[in-house]
Amino acid sequence: MRNAELLRSALQSLRANPKRSFLTTIGITIGIAAVITILALGNGVKKRLSDEFNTTQNGEQYTYLYFTPNDSQSAASGFTETDLNAIEERFGAKVKKAAISHETNNASVSPLVGNERVNNATISLFKRPTSKISIIAGRNLTTNELLTEEPVILMKESLAKKQYQTVQNTVGTSVSIGDHDYRVVGVYRSQANTYNDNKYGADLIGGTKLFYSGTTATTGYGIKLTFYQGANAGKVTKKIKKYMEKKGTSAHDGTYMAVDAGAELTKVNNMITGLTAFISAIAGISLFIAGIGVMNMMYISVSERTQEIGIRLAVGAAPQNVMAQFLLEAIVLTVGGGLLGFVIGWLLAGIISNFMPYHIHAVITLNSFLLAFGVSASVGIIFGILPAKQAANKNLIEILR
């Protein structure tokens, strides 16, 4: 029999018992859906981490070096252009570029609000106005103001009430940060800012271009080191740290800390991959149970269709054709359930990701689809081969009796 005829015959046999066929595939569907959901969310977490650290691009490696002043009131500039030039000159064979790393979410500042210095405040910076805050007094920043570097800023409700008693009194006041004096044009509703993960919950919101202009553009408490391919980024970063502790412009005013984002990201990704595989294996138990159900159904089908098998053999069908038909029926059942499970898992992962923190989105890859297809087909082959062999080995003489 040709493949098309085998497939047509298999589909007709399955349609003869639609309820039984559907119930048999439920286990496969649930198992594949669970695995795809877990993989999609795991991939989403790894992508979010990769985007956050931005450790790989065109094969290059990145690490970070941070400076922490001994005194929160210290005037130490951290890293300067002089430090960057010295790093590139001394470690140029390994380091492709050294650049000031500017924070844009919850950067630490000590602004002068009115006549009072506010320590341990935070500011989030935007290139364009954000609509994800609720203005309760004054107005929002405008695109033109941010592009033209107008010295305007927004203040959080809790800070405004603490400094000026009412939000209305806050509008029009001044805030001094570094070299710039800002005018408060609006007050926005306070939002929770646990562990600095909510950029809309900062004490202040301003424009990136103005904040990092002047001296702040060439100084900072962090630098990003870009390495050539093949360089041992972690080892070189440690050498740079030791060098800065001796020769850095702020060496005597604070401490340096090296962060190999690539190495840390690899460790975290390995942990996530291992955890995802473990949970997927547990979810995959349902696939084994579903496979037993498929085998049971196929044995019942072979028993019920003994006469059909005898007729096929009597008219000249080869045993291998009978075996192929029953095996194909099992594969169609499991692959159909697997594809349905893939779609359900995709949708379920998308729904769950909407409730996850840190802006994590489910990521479905081609490998996930191939896994769903391959596993479901394998279940059909493994658990359908024995019933198919039994059908092929039927004795025509015994059937005729």
From TrEMBL:
<dbReference type="GO" id="GO:0005886">
    <property type="term" value="C:plasma membrane"/>
</dbReference>
<dbReference type="InterPro" id="IPR025857">
    <property type="entry name" value="MacB_PCD"/>
</dbReference>
<dbReference type="InterPro" id="IPR003838">
    <property type="entry name" value="ABC3_permease_C"/>
</dbReference>
<keyword id="KW-0812">Transmembrane</keyword>
<comment type="similarity">
    <text>Belongs to the ABC-4 integral membrane protein family.</text>
</comment>
<dbReference type="GO" id="GO:0022857">
    <property type="term" value="F:transmembrane transporter activity"/>
</dbReference>
<feature type="domain" description="MacB-like periplasmic core">
    <location>
        <begin position="21"/>
        <end position="241"/>
    </location>
</feature>
<dbReference type="GO" id="GO:0005524">
    <property type="term" value="F:ATP binding"/>
</dbReference>
<dbReference type="GO" id="GO:0016787">
    <property type="term" value="F:hydrolase activity"/>
</dbReference>
<keyword id="KW-0547">Nucleotide-binding</keyword>
<feature type="domain" description="ABC3 transporter permease C-terminal">
    <location>
        <begin position="281"/>
        <end position="395"/>
    </location>
</feature>
<feature type="transmembrane region" description="Helical">
    <location>
        <begin position="21"/>
        <end position="42"/>
    </location>
</feature>
<keyword id="KW-1003">Cell membrane</keyword>
<dbReference type="Pfam" id="PF02687">
    <property type="entry name" value="FtsX"/>
</dbReference>
<keyword id="KW-0378">Hydrolase</keyword>
<dbReference type="InterPro" id="IPR050250">
    <property type="entry name" value="Macrolide_Exporter_MacB"/>
</dbReference>
<feature type="transmembrane region" description="Helical">
    <location>
        <begin position="358"/>
        <end position="386"/>
    </location>
</feature>
<feature type="transmembrane region" description="Helical">
    <location>
        <begin position="330"/>
        <end position="352"/>
    </location>
</feature>
<feature type="transmembrane region" description="Helical">
    <location>
        <begin position="275"/>
        <end position="295"/>
    </location>
</feature>
<keyword id="KW-1133">Transmembrane helix</keyword>
<protein>
    <submittedName>
        <fullName>Macrolide export ATP-binding/permease protein MacB</fullName>
        <ecNumber>3.6.3.-</ecNumber>
    </submittedName>
</protein>
<keyword id="KW-0067">ATP-binding</keyword>
<keyword id="KW-0472">Membrane</keyword>
<dbReference type="Pfam" id="PF12704">
    <property type="entry name" value="MacB_PCD"/>
</dbReference>
